[in-house]
């Protein structure tokens, strides 16, 4: 079979998303399934590590799709100036500190319905962010966020490479 005869693999994210993702863009992709066997329920690409600036927009989007969000669990060491709560659209959302790492946030709706979102580092390139997010939202994904990010994000340049 000639290389040009090989079927083109389907893109995991719609073309509109591929064109819209630019450096510094917050991007959310959430896929829910009836069976909750996957490790991740979605992915989030914040513009910065300022949680009070980034979280309200995420909560608003999630509320549209999931209903009221009551809690967000995150690793406070990964974010700047984390309060114990934020108010979004006149609703209090509690922020809980969990040692989940800087690659995950846990979203709670109601009393016990949890969603895990992979956090793509803010300085990630658009191509790497799309690749990581596409893997995270696959219904058959069983790979943890840290493993996805290590596999898809480029190695940072070393001082020796930068001076060459």
Describe the structure in your own words.
It is a single chain. It is built from five helices and seven strands; from the N terminus they run H-E-E-H-E-E-E-E-E-H-H-H. The longest helix has 16 residues, at 51-66. The protein has helices at 15-20, 51-66, 126-137, 145-152, 159-163; strands at residues 27-30, 42-45, 69-74, 85-88, 91-97, 104-109, 113-119. It is an alpha/beta fold.
Question: What would a concise description of this structure say?
Answer:
The chain is 29% helix and 23% strand. The chain is of the alpha/beta class and 164 residues long.
Name its key features.
164 residues, alpha/beta, 5 helices
Q: Could you spell the SSE succession in H and E letters?
A: HEEHEEEEEHHH
Q: Count the DSSP helices.
A: 5
Helix/sheet category? alpha/beta
Share of β-strand residues: 15-25%
User: How many β-strand stretches?
Assistant: 7
Q: What's the helical proportion of residues?
A: 25-40%
Overall spatial form: globular
N→C terminal distance: 42 Å
Q: Which sheet architecture does the biggest sheet show?
A: 7 strands, mixed
Report mean pLDDT, rounded to a whole number: 78
- Give the radius of gyration: 17 Å
Low-confidence stretches: 6-11, 159-164
Widest β-sheet, arrangement of strands: 1-2-7-6-3-5-4
Seen as an oligomer or otherwise, the chain set is: single chain
């Amino acid at each position: 079979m000639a290389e040009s005869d090989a079927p083109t693999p389907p893109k995991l994210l719609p073309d509109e998303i591929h064109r819209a993702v630019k450096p510094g863009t917050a991007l959310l992709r959430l896929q829910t399934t009836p069976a909750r066997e996957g490790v991740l329920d979605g992915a989030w690409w914040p513009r910065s590590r300022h949680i009070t600036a980034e979280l309200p927009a995420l909560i608003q989007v999630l509320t549209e799709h999931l209903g009221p969000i009551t809690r967000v669990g995150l690793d406070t060491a990964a974010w700047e100036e984390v309060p114990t709560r934020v108010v979004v659209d006149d609703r209090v959302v509690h922020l809980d500190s969990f040692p989940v790492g800087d690659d995950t946030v846990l979203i709670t709706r109601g009393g016990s319905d949890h969603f895990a979102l992979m956090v793509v580092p803010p300085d990630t390139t658009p191509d790497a962010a799309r690749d990581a997010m596409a893997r995270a939202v696959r219904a058959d994904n069983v790979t943890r966020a840290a493993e996805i990010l290590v596999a898809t994000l480029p190695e940072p340049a070393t001082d020796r490479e930068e001076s060459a």
